[in-house]
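Extended Data, panel c. Modelled sequence:
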Amino acid sequence: MIPEHTTDLRQRAFRIYLILAALFIASLVACNLIFRKFFHWSPIEGLTFEQSVGLLPYPVTFLVTDLISECFGKRRANEVVIAGLFASAFTLIIVTVSQSVAAADWSPVSNAEFDHVFGSTIVAVSASMAAYLLAQFLDVRLFHFWKHLTNGKKLWLRNNLSTIPSQFVDTFAVLFLMCSLGQIEWALFTSLLMNGFVFKVLVALIDTPLVYAGSWLIRRPFGLALGEEIEL
């Protein structure tokens, strides 16, 4: 805990929390806007991933919620998850209104081009929000379950055993909803599920050092030990 008389430290802690929350919301909104472009990635010979670019910023959301959970507690992490839901819903409204407005004759982007890029946003964001809520709340709950079970030790354990199951739930839920809504063929479901999950597991393992580094940098000014939380 931060000593009561250290007002400057509390203000610094709040600024750190706001920055993390901003990164979370920006990453989440970006996922929903750029998802229609797909790319190939071959980290090693014989292993190729075909994924939406929307997956690139999405692991940042789990990294941020783990950092907030670790350093600021479960309640603050859940608040950011709810804020992300409202941001996604508002983005959906903005895109819908933008589609309903006719483009000017001189507009660099025509109605057809705009609809081609953002035409599936309503369906995608709706499916994404449902999967997002389920996965993020599961991530926060599992993180604190393992934190309590290990008495605040073994950060690598709670980081991975919260993120990896949550990533599987998110991948399964969003693909199931997209297939059910006719956006993706059912024949692709299994391959996309396994491909997406393995990709996210690799990213989750890579972000473990980032969680350690980030939590150390956040705790250091306040003299907090691993497992201790900042109360805002």
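The longest strand covers residues 38-44. This feature is highlighted in the accompanying rendering.
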